[in-house]
Amino acid sequence: MNKSEMVPIGEVTGIDDLVALLSCHVGSLPLLYLGMPLGASYKALGIWNPIIEKVERRLAGWQKLYLSKGGCLTLLKSTLSSLPTYFMSLFPIPVSVANRIECLQQNFLWGGLGDVHWFHLVGCSPIWCGGLGVRHLIPFNRALLEKWFWRFRMKESHLWRRVLVAKYGVVRGGWITNKPRGSHGCSIWKHVMMGWEVFASHFSHDVGMGDRVLFWHNRWCSNRPLKETFPVLFGCSLNQDDFVASVLVSRSPGSSSDKLRWRLNGNGTFDSRSFYHALLAPVAMAFPWKMIWGVKSPRRIAFFMWIVAWDRILSCDNLRKKGFVLAGWCCMCKADDESVDHLFIHCGAARLLWSLVFRSFGVVWVLPNRVLDLLFGWQNWFGKRSSGVWNLIPSCLMWTIWRERNNRSFENKEIALDKLLETFCGVLFDWSRVWGLLLLHL
Q1: What is each CA distance from 88 to 108, 147, 310, 314, in whole angstroms?
Q2: Can the peptide bond before residue 139 be classed as cis, meaning omega within 30 degrees of 0?
C-alpha cells in the first residue's frame, strides 16, 4: 500500500492512525485519477494544460516539412482531433482553450499559406458541404456532454444516475432529473442540463406500456407534441399532465416498456456524430465532394482537388488577387491569362489530354466552362454507370497538368505534349493498379 494515497474530504478524525495502519500516504484535492482531475473546478483553465501540452508535444515530434497537406490532414483528423475527446466527454471546454487547440491545429495544417483564416473556417464544415470535416471543438464538446442524457435513461442501475436522482429527483416519466437550482450542487450537471431543450427536440418516444410517456407534452405520435398540434384541445383538456396509458385504452400485459428514439439517424440510437452535425448546422451547399474525397486517388491529390474546386490554387490570377505583381501568362499554351478554369479546361495542353480521354472511352462531350461544373457532371460516367477508373481521370489529369506547369515555371523544364500524354496515362495506370481497379474492368 506504500504507493497508495488516502485523500480526506473535509475533516477526518484519526487520519494518522489509518495511514499508519495501511502504510499509505496522505493526499489532498485536487489530484489526478486515471488521468482525470478530481476536486478541481471544472471551469479552471489549468485542468486543460496537460491536453494542450500533449498536442504541442505531438506536433513537435512530427516532421511537418516532409508531410504533404493530405498527410497533415490525415494526422489532424485521426490524432490531433482525438486527443481532447476524453476530457471533453466529461468537462465543458472553455472557449479560450478551444481557441488555443484549434489555433494549433490551424497552424499545423495551414502554416505558410495566406488564406489561413478563410480555409480554417471552411475546414470545420462537413466534407459534403465543401469543408474538410475537421471538428469544431465547441459543438463537439456539447455533443459529447449531452450524451449523458441518453445514458441517464439507458443506465438506470448505475451509481452516478442514482446519485443524481437522489439529489435532484426526476421529472414525470423519469427521462431526466429536475432542473438543478440554488448555488450548491453538481456544477457539471448544471452545465450539462443547460442543453436539455435542444437535445430533447431531436428524440421521440416509442410507446410501450405508456406509463412513462406524457400524452400532451412528449413527442410520441408525430414530430411535435400534441399540445402544439392541437392547442385548443389542450386548453380544454382536464388531463393535461396524464400519461398515455391513463388516457388511451390500456394495452395487453405483454407490451414492452416505453423507449426513446433518436431521430437524427436511421437506427434510433443516439450517436454523438449526428448530434454534432445538428449543432453545427452547416450551410447546405452544392459541392462535388464525391469526385474529390470519394475517388481512389492519393490523399494529397484529393486535397489538391479540394483547393482546385474552391479556386484557391496559386495560379497567376489568384496571385494577383493577393497583391503580387506579375504577368498573367499561361506557361502551358503561352497565349492566354492563367486561371484555374483556363489551366485545367481551356488551355491547349489540357484540351489535348481531354480529347485523348474522350477518344479512348468513345465519348462525345462538350467541356463546361468551369472546373466545378466538370466535377459535378463527371461522376460515374455522367451518371450512367459506376466506374472507378473513369472517376479517377479528372484528378489524374489536373494533377499532371499542375506538375508540368510548376516544372515549367520554377525549374525551367518543359516536356513535349506527347510525353505529357504518356505521363498522364502512366499515372492513371499506376493509381488504378494500386487500388485494384484494373482487375474490375478486365
Answers
A1: 21, 11, 32, 38
A2: no
